[in-house]
Design goal:
Strands 1, 2, 3, 4, 5, 6, 7, 8, 9 and 10 form a 10-stranded mixed sheet that branches. The chain has 395 residues and is of the alpha+beta class. It has helices spanning 3-17, 19-57, 86-93, 128-133, 145-149, 159-166, 196-199, 232-243, 257-300, 302-310, 315-348, 358-384, 388-392, and strands spanning 61-66, 98-113, 116-125, 137-140, 154-158, 176-179, 182-190, 201-205, 221-226, 252-256. A hairpin with a 2-residue loop joins strand 2 (98-113) and strand 3. It has 2 domains: 3-52 and 264-392, no CATH class; 100-227, no CATH class.
Length: 395
């Protein structure tokens, strides 16, 4: 029989003699590994979700935000900087390489339909918004340029919001809703796109928001679509040049989609690293639990150690015996924690793109093994250093 096979079989026999203690000892590692793997999966899922949203828009998108935009982190520029208005839209529309120039005003608000009231988002935009996002009406129709110019009170509901307000999204078409005591007619319901704000939005012509919804007649952002992907960089320069005629350089940020995606991914990586570090605390606690149990094992089996030493076992044999038990305890918890995390990922994936890759698996098993070695070596050394005579005489 192979020596290491013997060590493993001996360890498993010892676990079998005390199943409850073995299970409770591994539980700390199980929870820690589960937490770390789920946090890694959540980070991957968030990255997958955002990447998918950007890919749905294509690579020809330029986003203009007030202030420093995304370059200094989420929302850093939204509290200051330029107040975009229709003058900016008209000046940008003169640039020949731009296929779409779409202003967006957004406000979180309660939406009322009869006795139903739901939280949603008013999005004031142009008819080109639907073409830029590639959004079709699943029921009814979208508003037109004429509706925008005439400040029509015709609106398009996101499918999720329509279902919340009317039960069946198709029955929403032709009905009325109220936003800040103003009545609007629902002419269409847009398909779900997987974005919470869009799926729960009241899309209306941006000029219709002027007044009680948007008294300043300003926009949260301007989205620019370029017909040819190769012209995105040149179009970005032209947009910046046009806006600099009216604003200072620090008043706005013009970003290509890839730049935004890179910035967002960087932020997600930092946040995920912090969360994983916090989750790893439970792994340390689990490791201390293993060390305590192994010390108790050494005390309980002191006579056994003495007998083994007396019949020829070396210090190395004793050290490896207890170290093997410690590592197996950690691996057992790690494997079960990983399996539970994989099960959760499979259950959640249809609703949110959680990810589980080779890195997460390697981290889970590597950390659990390392904890077993690190926290197991101290009680193992204590057992190995016992002399045969004092071990046999131990009461």
């Amino acid at each position: 029989m192979n020596y290491f096979t013997f060590l493993i079989r001996t360890a498993l026999k010892d676990f079998g003699r005390s199943k409850v203690r073995t299970g409770l000892t591994s539980l700390g590692i199980l929870i820690g590994v589960f937490s770390v793997v789920m946090l890694i999966s959540l980070g991957l899922g968030l990255r997958n979700y955002i990447t998918r949203q950007f890919e749905d828009l294509g690579t020809n998108l330029i986003i203009i935000l007030p202030g420093s935009g995304f370059s200094q982190g989420f929302g850093a520029g939204l509290a200051g900087g330029a107040d975009f208005d229709e003058r900016d839209i008209k000046s940008l529309e003169k640039i020949g390489d731009l296929e779409y120039v779409v202003p967006v005003f957004m406000k979180a608000i309660d939406v009322v339909a009869g006795k139903e009231e739901e939280f949603g988002y008013v999005m004031g935009t142009s008819d080109d918004f639907f073409g830029l996002y590639g959004i079709d009406a699943e029921a009814g129709e979208v508003f037109t340029k004429g509706d925008m110019q005439g400040r029509s009170k015709k609106v398009v509901l996101g499918k999720s919001l329509a279902e919340k307000l009317f039960g069946d999204f198709e029955s929403a078409v032709g009905r009325d809703i109220k936003v800040q005591n103003q009545k609007y007619e629902v002419i269409g319901v847009s398909e779900n796109v997987g974005d919470d704000q869009l799926d729960n939005a009241v899309l209306m012509p941006y000029r219709t928001t002027y007044g009680n919804l948007n008294p300043g007649k300003t926009f949260f952002a301007i989205y620019v679509g370029v017909a040819d992907e190769d012209k995105v960089a040149a179009a970005k320069e032209l947009v910046e040049k046009e806006l600099l005629k009216r604003y200072e350089e620090d008043d706005f940020e013009v970003s290509e989609q890839e730049e935004l995606l890179a910035t967002i991914n960087q932020i997600i990586s930092v946040v995920n690293a912090v969360l994983i570090a916090i989750g790893s605390i439970s792994l340390v606690v689990g490791g201390i639990g293993i060390m305590n149990i192994m010390y108790a094992n050494v005390t309980e089996r002191t006579k056994e150690v003495g007998i083994r030493r007396a019949i020829g076992a070396t210090k190395r044999d004793i050290l490896l015996q207890f170290l093997t038990e410690s590592v197996l305890l950690s691996l057992l918890g790690g494997i079960v924690g990983l399996a539970l995390a994989a099960l959760v990922v499979l259950i959640v994936q249809p609703y949110f793109p959680l990810g589980l890759d080779a890195v997460a698996v390697a981290v889970a098993l590597g950390i659990s093994s390392a904890i077993g070695i690190f926290f197991g070596v101290f009680p193992a050394r204590r057992a190995a250093n016992l002399t045969p005579i004092e071990a046999i005489r131990y009461e």
